[in-house]
Amino acid sequence: MKPPALASPNLTARIAGLAAPILVGQLAAIANPVLDTLMVARYSAADLAALSVGASIYVSIFVGLNGVMQSLMPTFGQLYGAGALGKIAGEARQGSWLAVLMAIVGMLFLFFPAPFFSLTRASPELMEKVSLYLRILAFSLPASMLFLVYVTLNNALARPRMVMVIQVGALFLKLPLNLLLVFGGWHIPAFGAPGCAIATLILSWTTLTVGLLILRTHPFYHFLRLPKERFTPPRWQSLKELLKLGLPLGMNYFIEVTAFTFMSLFITRIGINAVAGHQVVANMATTLYMLPLSTAGATGALVAQAIGARKLPLARQIAFSGLRLAVCVAVVMATLLWCLRHIVVGLYTDNPGIVGNALPLVLFVCTYQIFDALQAVSSHILRAHKVVLAPTVLYVAALWCIGLGGGYLFAFNPFGLDIPQRLTGASGFWFCNALGLVLLSGVFLLLVNRVERRAENA
Questions:
Q1: Which of 445, 72, 84, 47 is nearest to 272 (CA)?
Q2: pTM for the complete prediction?
Q3: Domain coordinates of the chain in residue numbers?
Q4: Under a CB-based contact definition with an 8 Å cutoff, are residues 170 and 28 in contact?
Q5: Measured on CA atoms in the order 208, 210, 212, 215, is the torsion positive or negative?
Q6: What is the distance between the alpha carbons of residues 187 and 196, in angstroms, rounded to a whole number?
Q7: I need a surface site. Which of 89, 111, 141, 291 has the fewest CB within 10 A?
Q8: What is the tens place of the pLDDT at every residue in 127-138?
Q9: DSSP letters spanning 110-159
Q10: Distance between CA 128 and CA 117 in Å, rounded?
């Protein structure tokens, strides 16, 4: 296998071509919780509330661990750009040890979720169902973390199609499994929300098995020498380097996702219909976010390869093309969502209480699309340069302090401030989160420009 040829007459087309299979794979993956929400919404409002709380806790943990695993992405990408293929194989094996470590940490949180429960003040009956949901998902984490090694390797080498095929196949299996386990049938009882967790458990181990088979049999991966490689113990220096990059990345991911998921925990205090309406819109927002995220992943991979090849002006050109593409797509999608908002919400539920709580929140999703796209691509560009600490500080300020902190003040107004009624309740959280994203995207763009100039002058 040869290192990549980075020069391209049309960088936007190349980014789009790489982003397309990443997007399809991500949409297939994100369709799993969307299916969960759609089906459980038709099972019962109580189970939908349990799914909202349980999914919020699980996603907060999983995305943080996923962020740590993303330390492999710039590592693989820069080594590939530099032509150091033998080192990629070693990093992949150490990445597997990192995945095991992250799985152990995540399982402990899922088995003992009491700190998260203290934020919700929900009924014991609801928390019992959430606990079962989380404990089932705990057994899926080892497979999910190990599969991320395969995902980051393929994306960094600009070969995301194999990942896409596996994720799409998993989605096709998810539908019948959910139907069977949520609603019951064939002598299997109806589990409701916990049934979704059982389906996810089965699929996690299935996708890992398929990924390992491809790694061992496909000719492209022969440079990894997996069939010939004996047991490789962990190298603590390698793990230390991965964690040095991965822990801030994990914190970035955790902050970003908890800006949404902690909303669910706080909004649970308002009522079942409020948190269910929030869950519907959160699903819509997450689905839309896959568009800039796929562009960001493609842009980051190509920027990392250019950095590894010491083609820094080309890295800047790739970064600009990725940002421009993400903004154009965001404008189109925000316009479509606003025009079709009643139809889209109606696809989730026909419950008037949930619909009434969901529709006002759609405005905020449409408003911040451009800024969310800018921050997503910018963060991946910075990651390709292995700049991770400054984004962590910025995420804390914008998404936790302004988004969650300000959202709490607007939603519950504990100090009796003169806040417009339309910006209280769940809308308060969404308004402040949008404000945080606007500020975050502006500062990120300035930071990207500074990092690029510093790299070119080094």
A1: 47
A2: 0.80
A3: 11-457
A4: yes
A5: negative
A6: 17
A7: 111
A8: 777 888 899 999
A9: HH--HHHHTTT---HHHHHHHHHHHHHHHTTHHHHHHHHHHHHHHHHTT-
A10: 10
